[in-house]
Amino acid sequence: SHLQRQAEPPEADTAPWSEFGRAMQAGLARTPRNISPKFFYDVAGSQLFDRICELPEYYPTRTELGILAACAGEIAAQIGPHAEIVEFGAGSLTKVRLLLDALESPKRYLPIDISGEHLEAAAARLKADYPALAVQPIAADYTMPLVLPAPMAGAGRRVGFFPGSTIGNFEPDEALAFLQLAARMLRGGGLLIGVDLVKDPDRLHAAYNDAQGVTAAFNLNLLRRANAELSADFDLDGFSHAAFYNAPMRRIEMHLVSRRAQSVQLRGEHFAFEEGETIHTEYSHKFTVEGLQALAVRAGFRVGAVWTDPERLFSVHWLVS
Ligand code: AVI
Question: Is the CB of 52 under 6 A from ligand 1?
Answer without folding.
Answer: yes
